[in-house]
Amino acid sequence: QPNPPTMAKTGEQQIGAWVTALGAKKPTPGGGAAAALCAAIGAASGAMASIYTTRKKDEESGVAAGARELAASLDAAAAKCIVIADEDEAAYAALQASWKDTSMSEEDKKKVNATALDVPVRLVKLCHEQCKAVVDFLPKCNPNITSDAKVAIHLLSGAGRAAYQTVLVNSPPDDLKDELKKLLADFVEFEIKVYDQSV
User: Please, are residues 85 and 36 in contact by the beta-carbon 8 Å criterion?
Assistant: First the structure.
């Protein structure tokens, strides 16, 4: 279902106003949208580290082409995460409505529930995909900006774990939980790997 007409899309809001709205006593934006915005910021930080790895020496070594490709992928992921924040708000609004709508069929309620679960699941998987890409890129990254790549890794890992909490409140089946827990374990490994790296 679409966002209420009075609700501005996440990408059209000032960050300060959005944070204020998050802290207000109202259901949306909530934790799912917060995780999505965290992921967007993490992806953008990784994109910056990637695009700064396009120096002359990077061009000569062949690293620059891969860095540009990663930057484009991370930029696209950041934009997708902002959309996911809106999808999360819309999914929760539909879920709330389904609790009160006695005329809604069980089949329609199941569809609403499935959407509410699908949104955070997609976010966990997107965070994992992009985080792994940054981890793999880190050894090639411009050494003057590796801290920004590591920020991307930490933010994407945290966002993925946060999104999993939204998954849990939507009653996922056990096989899905097992699948996602493997990704959560990877997030831990990704972060441990970069804690003490000097480059």
Answer: yes
The pTM assigned to this predicted structure is 0.91
**Owner of token pair 């993490």:** 42
Tell me which residue of 167, 172, 166 sits closest to 28, measured CA to CA. 166
The conformation of residue 175, written as its DSSP 8-state character, comes to H
Do residues 158 and 198 lie in contact, with contact meaning Cβ atoms separated by under 8 Å?
no
* Tokens read off for 75: 């930029």
How far is residue 167's CA from residue 119's CA, in Å, rounded to a whole number? 8
138, 174 Cβ separation under 8 angstroms: no
Residues near 80 by beta carbon (within 8 Å), at least 6 away in sequence: 126
Residue labelled with tokens 């804690």? 195
Report how far residue 164's alpha carbon sits from residue 166's, in angstroms, rounded to the nearest whole number: 5
132-179 per-position pLDDT tens digit: 999 999 999 999 999 999 999 999 999 999 999 999 999 999 999 999
Q: Supply the DSSP symbol for 3.
A: P
Measuring CA to CA, which residue among 127, 135, 111 is closest to residue 194?
Answer: 135
Tracing tokens 């050894």 back to the chain, one arrives at 139
